[in-house]
Amino acid sequence: MKAFSKSPTAAADEVEAARSFLARASVIIDAKLHELVPVETRAPTHLHQAIRWSLFAGGKRLRPALLLAAGEAFGATHDGLLRSACAFEMVHTYSLIHDDLPAMDDDSLRRGRSTCHVQFGEATAILAGDALQTLAFGAIAEDENLDSDKRVRVISELARAAGTPDGMIAGQCYDLAAESRSVSVQELETIHQHKTGALIRACARCGAIIAGASEHDIENISAYAAHLGLLFQITDDLLDVTSTAEDLGKTPGKDARSQKATYPALYGIEKAHSLAERACEEACAHLDRIETPTPVLRSIARFVLARTT
Amino acid sequence: MKAFSKSPTAAADEVEAARSFLARASVIIDAKLHELVPVETRAPTHLHQAIRWSLFAGGKRLRPALLLAAGEAFGATHDGLLRSACAFEMVHTYSLIHDDLPAMDDDSLRRGRSTCHVQFGEATAILAGDALQTLAFGAIAEDENLDSDKRVRVISELARAAGTPDGMIAGQCYDLAAESRSVSVQELETIHQHKTGALIRACARCGAIIAGASEHDIENISAYAAHLGLLFQITDDLLDVTSTAEDLGKTPGKDARSQKATYPALYGIEKAHSLAERACEEACAHLDRIETPTPVLRSIARFVLARTT
Prior knowledge:
Two copies of one chain form a homodimer.
Chain A: H1 8-36, H2 45-55, H3 62-73, H4 78-99, E1 109-110, E2 113-114, H5 116-120, H6 122-141, H7 148-162, H8 168-178, H9 185-210, H10 215-242, H11 245-248, H12 254-257, H13 263-267, H14 269-288, H15 295-306
Antiparallel strand pairs in A: 1-2
Helix pairs in contact in A: 1-3, 1-4, 1-15, 2-6, 3-4, 3-9, 3-15, 4-6, 4-9, 7-9, 8-9, 9-10, 10-14, 14-15
């Protein structure tokens, strides 16, 4: 229970430290993303506008920031981490664009603005998502700050975490298959481990891999991030129940209306809260097994937990 | 005019040689694709069925065969070429699945069977295409028969050829923007160079790159393949005009009905034929600049030309 023995002030300080780290990380990630994605004035302009519309919609950059934080903890510099971090954000954004499509979740609002297909049409939204995935892999392959061995290792991690049968696309399938019917706790966990967990876990792993961390440390970072991913999903589900559209930047209560499997739906709000606390605690317990100090990673877990309080 | 000085019998022999090469290549490519893609019985089964439905629909495997032919010409073995070849086929298949979607070309028939979204639903078809792209990059990243330097080079070539602003996705945007209005010769060429040409060219380049060919040879192989891609597009357009659904395995005359920009529409059938002959000739002229003998690559150009006669 080490992670929870701190005073409320200390915990608030950690949340503030994470907020500050994330804000700084966002700035450098956004700058690099601007560099990696074709400018809007370049043909085909409609496509590049659509890509940028979704990529620069005010996302929190949690995934790439996590990659930076994990890499920095083990001594990597921004130079070696930034392209990989951006690649993960591009894959995350592509998945949001495709998830929002009429044939999928049919969402019209995301991060406080129209979704890509509402703004640019469905065909362009499909292609913008496709292109972001392609750009992500290309960005890592051409990263001159990493040797080729590390590039292929990061690409392999990204592909496994984003794909099927162990990654995000498989999770999206499980999620679609679970709509409009009741799901077990086991199924809910499978959905989230694949849909959101795998990519978050791979972000943290890749930071450690780029930094040349030991296998022992990479495994503990993976376990930390697996619990962080769960924590993130629970708090996301809770926010959907408890927030207004303005707070959330997307249509709230949508999960309940579409009978989506969520933690509050399955456990109730109170129990979902305590599951979130437990996930934060377990994430931090894995950090305790790493010799290198990891205050930023710890503060990120605290920050995610604090989203719902 | 060396390429055309042969007797009709010699030309027929070349076509036969290509047919035989492509048939043999198909078998080993299909075997490797079966290995690289999750089995249908693995969860999520619906997704893996959809992926396999489209990937094993009887495609000609022209792109991966071209990669093998180019690689073999410069002395590479199948072991070093096969995963990359399969990756290009996966990207090609993903693009067909997404192109066929209702929001795009809205096609219900492809290679003689229902398109992916007709068979498995639109959401699964989007995800199957997404997953094939991911699997493609992962397959190269984890290719133990190639050193890491070559893997990242092939991944970079694939990403550029499949993406935007210089590749396939950009081409698909240009194509969509050209529907239902008249296009210039220049625009038609831009569409095809991006939409189909870039990927075909990259296949041939990657074969040569994996084999360790010189930059001079890689450039000539690129130029050969650029003309081959044009040749392929013209003959494809011609087949759409002159074939029945049974011959074609997809809805014929569809290009004309949707007022798609095509070579026969812009030039007439006869002139399109002579443009195809010219493209074949120029492709072969670039092969003449390579010291290594390239009979298979030459025969493939002959074979593509012969599709319409």
